[in-house]
Amino acid sequence: MDADAVWRVIDDERGRLADLMDDLSESEWRTPSLCREWTVREVAAHLTLAHTGPLSATGSLIRAGGGFNRMIRDTAIRQARLPVHEYPRRLRAMIGSRRTAPFITELEPMIDVLCHAQDIARPTGRPYPMPATAAAAAADRIWSQSFPFRARRRLRGFELVATDAPWRAGAGLRVEGPISALLLLVSGRPAAVADLAGPGAAKLAATFPSNSGPATTDAGASSPKER
C-alpha cells in the first residue's frame, strides 16, 4: 500500500471506530479490553493521543521517570478522565490529518487503529470486520521489525498463513486463519488463537500464558512490555 492508501484506511477506520464508540453503553466503557490492564475507556482515551507532539511526549516521559511503557499507560489513564463523548469526537477530528506521533511512519497509526478497534470490539461482543489488505500491510510492518512487537522471536517455529489474503510469514508448523486474526497474533493478542487452525495451532495456543496479552501500550507508536 502506498502512503495515500494507508491514510485513507486510517481515516475510514477512525470514523468507523468513532461510530462504534457512540453506541457503547456505560458498562461497556468499563469492560476490560484485550490490552492487559486497560479498560475499553482507556483504550479509547489512548487512541485520541495519536497527535501528541514532541514537547508534550518529552514532558510525559520525564513525568513517568523515563519509563516508556509507564508513560503510555499514565497518559491514557489521565486522558480517560474525559467524558466518554469526547473520545469519538476527538477521533473524528483527526480524520483528514496526516500528523503522526514523533519518529513513526503512517503505518504505525494504521496498526494502532486496526488493533485497538479489536481491543474494544471483541470484549464488547461487537462484530467488527477488518479490511484484509490493510491488515496484511500492518502484519508485514510488524513482522519486519524486531521492536516493539518481537513477533519473529515470539513466533519462531511457526509458519503463519492467511486464508483470505496473500500473506504468510515464518517457517515451521503451519498455523492458518484470517489475516485479521494473524495481525492480532503478531501484535501479541492471544484472543486471536481461537480463530486459527492448522497443525501448529494447539502448540501455538500453549505458548500463551493464561494472563497474557499486549501490555497497556500503543499498538503502533509505542513499545510494549512484551508482545
Automatic annotation (TrEMBL):
InterPro entries: DinB/YfiT-like, Maleyloyr_isom, MDMPI_metal-binding. Gene3D superfamilies: dinb family like domain. Residues 206-227 are annotated as: Disordered. One of its GO terms (molecular function) is metal ion binding. Coiled coil: none annotated. It comes from the Bacteria. Pfam families: MDMPI_N. Residues 12-57 form the Mycothiol-dependent maleylpyruvate isomerase metal-binding domain. This is Mycothiol-dependent maleylpyruvate isomerase metal-binding domain-containing protein. It comes from Virgisporangium aurantiacum.
